[in-house]
Predict the structure.
Amino acid sequence: MATVTFRDETATGKPLTEFEVAGQPARMTVRELIRLRVREEAARHNARPANRFNGLVRPDDAETELNGYRLREPRRIDGERQAEIAERAFLSNGFFVLAGDRQVEDLDEAVDLTTDPDLVFIKLVALAGG
């Protein structure tokens, strides 16, 4: 069993957040890893619902804030819905994922967590007026 580390960084490489999930298979697809990550974020939020959600993708009816999202009121987040949003965001270049020293580009690409246990997520931000 492997432990995977999910880390968010800025485009310049500055670390923002990081957490680990243990007990995973040695190989997982990028799709499985993204879904694991957002379901874990939702579960952590749902353990203590608040009006702010720090996650990879914006939940429905939330406003984007610096390094997170503001919910209209404290509520539970649907992890499966977040996983669907995250898959679409990956496919539309809303963020990209680095495994080890390489960018993974296909949801069905397998990642060997015994050699590349650290995944870096970099969100792309649309430029104003562009």
Remarks:
- Residues 2-123 form one domain.
- The beta strands are 2-9, 15-24, 27-29, 52-53, 62-65, 68-71, 95-99, 102-104, 110-112, 118-123.
- The two ends are 45 Å apart (CA to CA).
- The chain has one domain: 2-123.
